[in-house]
Design the sequence.
C-alpha cells in the first residue's frame, strides 16, 4: 500500500482524523501523514502521549512546509 505522498496525487488540504493516536497503528499513521504534510486531528485517551505526539507532529509539519517543492 502506498503512503499518502507516494501516490503522486495532489489532494486538497483537508484534515485527517486519527483516533488512538497515542500508540500502535494510530501513532504510526499520525507520523506517516505528518511527514507527508497532511493536516491532522488527533484523538487519544492518554493525554501525556498525545501531547508528545502533537509536539513531534508540529516539528515534522514545519519541516515539510519549509522544504521547497
Sequence:
Amino acid at each position: 500500500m502506498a503512503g499518502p505522498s507516494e501516490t503522486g496525487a495532489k489532494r486538497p488540504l483537508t484534515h485527517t482524523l486519527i483516533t488512538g493516536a497515542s500508540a500502535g497503528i494510530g501513532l504510526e499513521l499520525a507520523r506517516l501523514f505528518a511527514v507527508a504534510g497532511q493536516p491532522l486531528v488527533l484523538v487519544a485517551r492518554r493525554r501525556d502521549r498525545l501531547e508528545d505526539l502533537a509536539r513531534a507532529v508540529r516539528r515534522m509539519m514545519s519541516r515539510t512546509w519549509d522544504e521547497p517543492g
